[in-house]
Amino acid sequence: MPLQNRVTPFGDLVAVEARGLLMGNRGILHDDAQRIVRHHQGRRWIACVTEFRGRRRTLMRPGSYTELFFLDEATALAAGHRPCAECRHADYARFCEAWASWHPDATVNADTMDVELHLDRVAGRAAKRIYPAEATTLPDGVFFVLDQRPWLLWRGFALAWSPGGYRERHRRPREIVPVLTPLSIVRTIAAGYRPAVHPTAEAAAA
Question: Which of 13, 78, 94, 188 would disulfide-bridge 181, Cβ 3.0–4.6 Å?
Answer without folding.
Answer: 78
